[in-house]
From TrEMBL, chain A:
This is Methionine aminopeptidase. Removes the N-terminal methionine from nascent proteins. The N-terminal methionine is often cleaved when the second residue in the primary sequence is small and uncharged (Met-Ala-, Cys, Gly, Pro, Ser, Thr, or Val). Requires deformylation of the N(alpha)-formylated initiator methionine before it can be hydrolyzed. It comes from the Bacteria. A divalent metal cation 1 binds at D108, D119, E246. It catalyses: Release of N-terminal amino acids, preferentially methionine, from peptides and arylamides. It comes from Zavarzinia aquatilis.
Automatic annotation (TrEMBL), chain B:
GO terms for molecular function: DNA binding. SUPFAM superfamilies: Homeodomain-like. It comes from Zavarzinia aquatilis. Keywords: DNA-binding. Residues 6-66 form the HTH tetR-type domain. PROSITE patterns: HTH_TETR_2 (PS50977). This is TetR/AcrR family transcriptional regulator. Residues 29-48 bind DNA.
Length: 272, 195
């Protein structure tokens, strides 16, 4: 396997261009991430703790040959991030966090399989979610799919961010700007950074072989977030609901490949 | 898992300097600085608690550079060289010159609180510059003489540079003659009189 690098750099950082072997590695790791997220769906219900969900995810990943990439990452100690309601991202699983009817949550897993990081996340609901929560979740998924649809050789990361931003603004939801998607592969976080807002034609020009995550976070209220004292948990400052979906994708010669395939959107929507 | 982008503080400081130099302090908003770097705003807030903090860091960086350039000739009693150093420094660093010489620190941060460490660093630099100038003046100058010397070393060169900094064009060579001419007639600073 040979890793080439783009002639473009980002803040002095090289952007890897992966070959077919790299894409195959990402397919396997990505499928495990997606399968883990499918596996956990029926366990998400009122009364269950987020720590229990985390343990189930960890067992599933390990049973299928994966290692949770989040454990040990900058001191993080869990196999997943589980972000409930106004938690934007990096929610820490806890025995004390018991889901209640109407909660919405994001579960984010990154199994490492044969050295490749498959990074994905999606939303779930404990019981029935409210109308506004449903609209937020649906719009966040639509924004992710719009961002992915913008990925092709010659397009820019600004095109991707703009596509996401357009959907969010149409529904008057705000986009979290404090966090971004990222290059991924044999390292967890690589170049390029993938902002979920942008201007058409700006930023890194996409080239075949680039692999990165797209993971927009939309808030029902203002975009401002704060990090809690645990150093991880990011919450909306106004305590408004937040939602997120994430795929790992690769730029192909003709378009885009999703490494972390879920069911088709309609089936996924029904499963949330 | 999302990324809080790993950009160095220097990236944000450089972006703030460029934005202020190009379009004034109002252009250096947090989103604009982050966008210029290609980073999420959270990455900026990870390192700087406020817009005032990143602008103060930018001021400390540029003013520190400026001070380091001017202090040697000032301490060595070379007033003409100090004034010419100011011109040379501006010509070599046009963005930094526009940032520093066309702005005022108080207006730049718009009265917002500045972190104590940055405020202390800027005060230290100003003290070094003040002591270097006092050394040049030799301690024998009257208030009027010191003001005249300050005019020739600082104020007049900045005035000569100002239209070219505002116009963003190259600094023409006649500015050198203009500044150097301030020290003709053997009046290379008051230390000549005090010696």
């Amino acid at each position: 396997m040979t890793i080439r690098y783009s002639a473009q750099t980002e803040g002095g950082r090289k952007i890897p261009l992966h070959d077919g072997e790299g894409f195959e590695g990402m397919r396997k790791a990505g499928r495990l991430a997606a399968a883990t997220l499918d596996f956990i769906a029926p366990y998400v219900k009122p009364g269950v703790s987020t720590a229990a969900l985390d343990k189930l995810c960890e067992t599933y990943m390990r049973d299928h040959g994966g290692i949770p990439g989040t454990i040990g990452y900058h001191g993080y100690q869990h196999a997943s991030c589980i972000s409930v309601n106004h938690v934007v991202t990096h929610g820490i699983p806890s025995d004390d966090k018991i889901l209640v009817e109407g909660d919405i949550l994001n579960i984010d897993v990154t199994p490492v399989l044969d050295g490749w990081f498959g990074d994905a996340s999606r939303m779930y609901a404990a019981g029935d979610m409210g109308v506004k929560a449903r609209r937020l979740v649906d719009t966040t998924l639509e924004s992710l799919l719009a961002g992915i649809a913008a990925v092709k050789p010659g397009a820019t990361l600004g095109d991707v961010g703009h596509a996401i931003e357009r959907i969010a603004r149409r529904e008057r939801f705000s986009i979290v700007e404090d966090f971004c998607g990222h290059g991924v592969g044999q390292v967890f976080h690589d170049a390029p950074n993938v902002l979920h807002y942008g201007r058409p034609g700006e930023g890194i020009v996409l080239e075949p072989g680039m692999i990165f995550t797209i993971e927009p976070m939309l808030n029902a209220g203002r975009p401002d977030v704060k990090i809690l004292s645990d150093g991880w948990t990011a919450v909306t400052r106004d305590r408004s609901l937040s939602a997120q979906f994430e795929h790992s994708v690769g730029v192909t010669e003709t378009g885009v490949e999703i490494f972390t395939p879920w069911p088709e959107p309609a089936a996924l929507r029904a499963a949330i | 898992m999302v990324r809080l982008a790993q950009f160095s503080a220097d990236c944000f400081v450089s972006a703030a300097i460029a934005l202020v130099a190009e379009a004034g302090p109002s252009a250096a908003s947090i989103p604009a600085i982050a966008r210029r770097v290609g980073a999420p705003t959270g990455s900026l807030y990870h390192r700087f608690p406020s817009k005032a903090a990143v602008l103060a860091a930018a001021w400390a960086e540029v003013h520190g550079d400026f001070t380091a350039a001017l202090v040697p000739p000032l301490f060595e009693g070379r007033a003409r060289d100090a004034a010419m150093t100011l011109v040379d420094w501006s010509r070599a660093r046009p963005l930094r010159a526009r940032f520093l010489l066309l702005n005022d620190f108080g207006a730049l941060v718009d009265g917002a609180p500045v972190p104590d460490d940055l405020r202390a660093e800027i005060a230290r630099q100003e003290d070094v510059l003040d002591r270097a100038f006092l050394s040049l003046a030799g301690g024998h100058a009257s208030a009027a003489e010191a003001a005249a010397l300050r005019f020739r070393v600082f104020d007049a060169p900045v005035a000569a540079l100002r239209p070219h900094l505002i116009g963003r064009g190259p600094i023409p060579e006649f500015v050198d003659d203009l500044v150097s001419g301030l020290f003709d007639n053997g009046r290379d600073a008051l230390q000549g009189q005090a010696a």
